[in-house]
Amino acid sequence: MSTETADGGGDDDTAVTVTQDAAAEAIRLIESEGLDTDEAGLRLFVQQGGCAGLSYGMRFDHEPEPDDAVVEQHGLRVFVDPASQNYVGGSTLRYEGGLQGAGFHVENPNVVSECGCGESFRT
């Protein structure tokens, strides 16, 4: 397992950067699920699907898998499996509130095209 700890952005293109707002919202949700934020975290992964070929997935996990990359930023642990890391390295995870489009969004510099709704992508 590789672990990287950072408080803000980084220049490592293999890392995932998490904004402070995204970390705060994810921690709030993890705690509302009764999980321990010292061990649990947000899993960011890529899966086949969507009109552009690939889509992002997120879920809360109790702990990382042995081969996961673990990024800790603003008190949030983010777990990324090796296959997904190839697609999301260098990305920024943001949380945007509001009446429309509230939720987590991945800004990924590796994307060459996205579908019209922004839910799937191709690298």
UniProtKB/TrEMBL annotation:
Instruction: Tell me the PANTHER family matching this sequence.
Output: IRON-SULFUR CLUSTER ASSEMBLY 2 HOMOLOG, MITOCHONDRIAL
Show the InterPro entries listed in the entry.
ATAP, ATAP_core_dom, FeS_cluster_insertion_CS, HesB-like_dom_sf
Any one Gene Ontology MF annotation carried by this entry is: 4 iron, 4 sulfur cluster binding
All residue ranges annotated as the Core domain in the record: 16-119
Coiled-coil ranges per UniProt: none
Superkingdom per UniProt: Archaea
What protein am I looking at? Answer: Iron-sulfur cluster assembly accessory protein
| Source organism of this protein record | Halobellus limi
